[in-house]
Amino acid sequence: MDSQQYNLLLSAVAISANPTLATDVNVKEQAFTLLSQFKTSNNAAAAAFSILHSSTPHLYNGNHDVSAQMKLYALLCLLYTTHNSYSSYSDENRTAFRTQVLQVIAGAKETDIIIVPKLATLLADISIRDFPNRWSQSSFMDSIRTLFTLNATTATVVLSALRSLTEDCTDSDFNTKVSTARRNDVLQGLNEVSSLLLPLFHHFIQHHYGTLLSSKQQNNLPAFNSSVKLLLSALQCLKVFSIWMPLTWADNAAHDFVAIYLHLLREKEGEIHVMAATCLDCLCRRKLGPELFHRLLETMPTYITEAEKINQTNTLESLTEQLPFHLKISEALTHTVALNIAKITDDKTIFPKPQPSSKAAATLMKFLTAMSDMMQHPCVVITGSQINTWVLLCRDPQVQKSGLLSSVIPSLFPRFLKCSRRVNWDLVDSGDEPLSMLYEEAWGDREDYEIWLNEVRGKLGMLVRLFSVMEPVMMSRMLLASVEEVLGKYGGRSAEGGVSKLSEAYLEIESLNLFVDQCVQGCCNRHAQGEIDAETKQNLGQLAGKLVGWIPDFSPLYMQRHASFMESLRHFFYHDPLHLPTAVLNLFNCVAYRDSKCPSGPITSTEQLLPDNVMLRRKSGTALVSLGKACSTILLQFVDDLLTKANSLTNDTVLLPPQVMHLIEFLTCVANATQDNAKKTSFIDSVLSDSVTALVSGAEMTAMTSSVENLLQAIGITPDPTSASVTDPATVERISANYSRVFSALNQIMNVGKRCDENTKSKESPFLIPFKQQQQQQFTLQSPPPTEGPIALSELAQFDAFVHLWPRILPALINTLSVAYQMWAPEIRCKLLSHKLQRYALALSDEEAIVATKKFTAGTNPMDQVEMSGYVCAGTNKRKINLVPRWSGWMNELRNCPLQMLGLLASQRALYSPELQPIFPSIVNLFSAKNLKAIEHRQLIQLLKQFIEPLLHSTPYTLYGSYLTPILTPILSHLQWRLDATWKVNADGRVGAMAPSSSTSDAAAVDCSSGNGTDQWFETYYSYCGLFCGDMPTMDNEAAVEKIRTELTHAWCDTLQSALALKGEWALTLANIAKENDTRKKNNNVMNSKVAPGIGYTKTSMKTNADGTVRTPDHVHSEALLLLRIDAMSHYLTQEESVAGPVVMTVINCLTYPDAHTSRRAIKICHRILESTVHLPKYENILGKMFQTCAQQIVSEPKWMVGVEWDIIALLRDLYCRLVLGQALTPGGQGPGLQCNQGPGGFMQHKSAALPRDGGGISCKPSDIPRNCLASLPGQSVSSVQKLEAGMNAKRAAKDQKALFKDFFQISAEIMKRQEGNQNSELSGLFGRAGQDESVLKQQDKGIGSDDRPLGKAPGSSSKKKKKKKKPAGGVEGVASLFGGS
Known about the structure:
The chain contains 62 helices and six strands. The chain is mainly alpha-helical and 1382 residues long.
């Protein structure tokens, strides 16, 4: 580099590093351009070495020292050379380059600390390319040893480089840039030099630790600081070794790093002890060998105790400072146990019962005690870190039976109770909490703490339940003592006036709630099949007496806790109902609770009650329903008294509609316990008499459902409402009361119907009787059981006391839903949008808007986030005296409730009864093309979830043509059109449009009017999902549209997956059958084996389902029926022309929608469609289109598809194997290709062709469509397709075949990318081509070092390989002739 080049480079570096040196923008751009171009030049490396070797300061204009910046730029040039040109260097040039780099590192000084990271990166990059193939192990170690001992700076470079080298070859976050072969070579080389490298580390740490101690005594601060930094660097490198390298690296007599970690726990200078604890934790996270495990089990408690004595924390500041150390130690202890439970339970001196003289038992108890002692830390984050380990211990069957934990549970109980207690973060923010500093260090802020608390409480519930199953007497006794203590201290009237959700008293009682619920459940579930032991029963009886007798009626907040306690006791009341009547009476009083601030007289709206009072009534109602479900047989004797009490409360008009509904649900649960069907039916009639009358002949309902205009008038949407009229208290109260009567009737009937349906399904199903009675006869699709057809309501009523009401209530439900749908017709919509108040009837409700835009915290009520300002309707919400924000919620209820009841109608089988046959056409008319066009996406979502999915699952398969086809045909055809319009890409490359808002509603009304209901207008309507977003901000408007758009697509795919047994109840049925078959085969193999069965083997051990529930004979019979429906539904959805057409084409279109979740769902459905139809010649073109769509997607590499590519490739492989190669696969395109034999006209059909759920068949005649598709791709030809097929026949494993497809499509993708140029750049958003690091097609197996010479065989590997028997190529007939070959 001559002086002119040097001066230009110096100037450019100086200006780039300090922009104030040049004011002209052009000068700055020229400097940047020069630096960018220079590092790509041929002499950049030589110039860089010249700069780095120079000892002369680099001065710009004689007074600006830019030496550090020049060296950094020089290192950037060398890194660029390494990444781009180094692979083409000869061995000689590589050695010269490497030597120069080592000389630069050796010349580094303490003042060059700024370039140390780049030097380490450069050394690691060279090592990963050359070591050990071109950079011999001896030479590598000589260089490392020299730099290690030269000075502190060079040692730091080496440590950082070794850390990066190891991470690049092991950690999944880094190793994608290095080929597998190269990673293996480097790791093998490191392992072979470990005998030289690790003693070097060991001596290095010993030396500098000695220097640290001596310099500390001599008060030599520079030497002390240097030793601390070097020790930390060494530990950071050893941390990576502890995670990824062989365990013998850490635990070896010659270099015992475990002893170093344990010893350094006492050194808190520079947080060395934290780093040592981290290394120890990383080691403990691995599966340890028996010797190392027992060594840690024995020594860790001792070393931790010593470290605690040396590093005593006497102040809050020191405690806060040491929190990371304590947390890491706690994690190391827990991981040691959690990942090695099998080694503990294998010790016969501990299990099944600990022997008194067992050293292993004493060691284990000492270790568990150390874990327990760590939880004495004032910050419960330590406790939270151990919960998973204690859960794992408690879930182990041998630990449960051994009583091992009996001695530690008493010390754990109060710690876990404290852990569940919520911290008042307001006090933390204000600094009034004594441990504020510690809590802020542990969690940072309120949001992080709330997330942590919700997660920990979920785990604590499981742990307390497990403790109670293991030690019911001990847990019930401790729980009783805690309840007595807390209620005695905080439960009295002395707390009156000072009770709030953040008061100490309330927080203490709230934390008890979780423990009471889970402890009682655990103690009772342990004896679910029998009586509870006497002492446990006595303790729980006293507990129940304390809680039932605690009636803090001075505070609605306390009464909420009281109601929760009553609900928690439901498990115990089943075994001892002594206090059950009092508990039920207390809850009756709670649902009608009035505090001192509540006005006298009737209660007609929530505005008359305080929010805490409303919440109490709601909680008490749900608690009553829970008690009714759990203790219905016991409460049945009091049913008349309960009904009298409920009627008394209802007649006194002190209950709001939700509480009336809860009472009715409770009474229904109790009544369902009776075996007298006539009495049960009579009771249901008496409970619902008022509601049925209000629904069928009530004045409000009759007027409301007579027309759309009357519906609008009924909810307060007059022809020209004003602000004064919609906020007039008398008007609001009158209209709200009228609506409440209508909806309460609907809601009460619906909930009673659901409870009756639940009760029916919990008992022996009458539809399984034919399967139990059949002897030799096997039911098939052609020979169905007698129950798979219409059944009269009179027969259904023998099992379900609700169904006899359907002929009376169904017409009213149909009218309600019909009128509600008509409100969204374009002619009505344009009128409402044009009015400044009426338009809000079309808007999202506040709850929907908050959920759609994710503006609420998980686990909280979305309305709590709205507060008092309103979100959709600015300045108000439905809690205020204003009709406008209530309209949207009311319309949702009037649509969703009838839809749910139609789903219930199908679920109860009443829909298919002869009595309701005349009404069925009216149900079909609800889903006419006119109604379907007009409704919004969110209404269609509810239609799919609440009606279509139950309909698909409940319809007898003999009635598919008469019941499913009339309903599904218009819906499926409409969905295909709607989804295409919804996901249509605009001219600007974006999907969808902005929904109308308050500021654009007038324009939207004009557009609606001028559109006049044409298809073109509806397509625009669907582009914004039919939403009206009111006063929502613009960004939230877009978020809501996107949320609803994807939710509709997901709902459609989920419904289809459920119908095809890919998820839900039917998928569980297939999983149960598969599990039972596997277990039966395993048992048969064991019984047929010459080896005796293992300990604990029994023939009856296969009595659980796939979800863990106990398997009964009823499961076998129900699965026989469901299998018939699964097969029938698969056939119906793919071969009934009016249904199959839109289903299949919509699913294929879903593959192109820019949403990864939709694509994944659609791919699963495509596999099932292929399995169901590939053997049918008429499906060849459709499946060919599916293949073409997938191929086009994979080669275009859109950004939205990142992460889904392998799923697409798996579908392409499934299609190609079945359509072309004659290879059948297992369900979902899994497993190797199973080659079918050649037949006279092609392939012979696979045995599973008629059973898609078993994998389906193949196309007997190879299809040319996929071949033509592949051959037409850029860069492909006949020969490349032939090569692909030959490879797929030679290698039939799924991984190999998918890899062949990936390599095949990569060629086309690269050519297309070059052809596109900048047309498909990053500016194209989701549809732009994925970047180099994103696309699967770019992630080649050959990465860094792809041209490196191979390393010699690994030590101990055999040079002989078993020769696999070569299978003949599975006749891919016609490949050559297809393309004109001979």
